[in-house]
Amino acid sequence: MTTPTVASTPALLTVKNLSFRYKQQVALREVNFEIDSGEIFGLLGPNGAGKTTTISCVAGLLGQYGGELAFRGSSFRPFESSGDRQHLGVVPQDLALYEDLTARENLEFFGGLVGLRAGDLGQAIQSALILAGLVERADDRVKTYSGGMKRRLNLAIGQLHRPDLLLLDEPTAGVDPQSRNHLFEALERLRQEGRTIVYTTHYMEEAQRLCDRIAIMDRGRVIAVGTASQLADQAGIPGADLERVFLELTGRSLRDG
Ligand SMILES: Nc1ncnc2c1ncn2[C@@H]1O[C@H](COP(=O)(O)OP(=O)(O)O)[C@@H](O)[C@H]1O
Ligand SMILES: [Mg+2]
Fold first, then answer.
1. Dist. CA 71–CA 93, nearest whole Å
2. Among residues 9, 62, 243, 249, which one has the fewest Cβ atoms lying within 10 Å of its Cβ?
3. CB distance 42 to 213 below 8 Å
4. Could you tell me if 150 and 142 are in contact, meaning their C-beta atoms sit under 8 angstroms apart?
5. Looking at the predicted structure, is the pLDDT value of residue 7 above 80?
6. Taking ligand 2, which is a single-atom ion, which protein residues have CB atoms under 5 Å away?
């Protein structure tokens, strides 16, 4: 009897043997992972691990990398192809907002840049303001916002055109716990809508709470990939938290940086 073969769907994003160096500094050494549609995928590692460099290669900001990227199984060249970049939304580590404009004006400006027009733009802005919890403050200038509100607006802008893949680089840097919870709620709402998100952080609690699967990075390498509980199993300490897993796998503490 033959077993029927199930055609397996390719991953949304495949990162294969990704390598990168900045002049003297090797930043990525054959990084491998796959991201499935609908998941929040975490890149967890201390400062200098290579998270931002990985995001920058995937986002099309850096082009001179080794290895290959694929999107739904087809070659993906975001540095060269603006068509490929349209699949992406990028929320950079540094805020990219016009402080003298209101939230609504920022959303109008950035929405225009990604090709949203008239009715579509109006609707996208309304849902973005709801997502960011900024409906009431939409017409106030950004310079009057708290750090957490600016972060939420940054996120709202990055996802405005409903990208297939949303890339967030350390979105909670410098954010107080309450604003962090707001941001997590917004991300969880996006996940419920079936969006796919890459989330980098050096906070293991964030990765543990938010991410469906996590790649642990250290010194330019991905040293393990899986759910938090799979990672603990792989490290031979079932049930352990990610801090202990990192220590077990690297001999160093995540907090050492
Ligand atoms: N513009 C740059 N020029 C030279 N070295 C860099 C630059 N950006 C990052 N690096 C180095 O590359 C490595 C990876 O950095 P990065 O990707 O920023 O890590 P992370 O985001 O995990 O903190 C580190 O050793 C860092 O010092
Ligand atoms: Mg970084």
1. 23
2. 9
3. yes
4. yes
5. no
6. 51-52
Q: From ligand 2's centre to the CA of 6, what distance in Å?
A: 39
Give domain limits for the chain.
10-87+200-257
Full 3-state SS string of 92-111: CCCCCCCCCCEHHHHHHHHH
Instruction: Report the CATH number of the 10-87+200-257 domain.
Output: 3.40.50.300
Residue 189 and residue 131 in contact, taking contact as beta carbons nearer than 8 Å: yes
Each residue's pLDDT tens digit, 65-105: 999 999 999 999 999 999 999 999 999 888 889 999 999 99
Residue 54 Cα: closest atom of ligand 1: 17
| Spatial contact of 53 and 20, defined as CB atoms under 8 Å apart | yes
Closest residue by Cα to atom 18, ligand 1, is 52
Can you give the pTM of this predicted structure? 0.93
Q: How far is CA 110 from the centre of its chain?
A: 19
Q: What DSSP string describes 164-190?
A: SEEEEESTTTT--HHHHHHHHHHHHHH
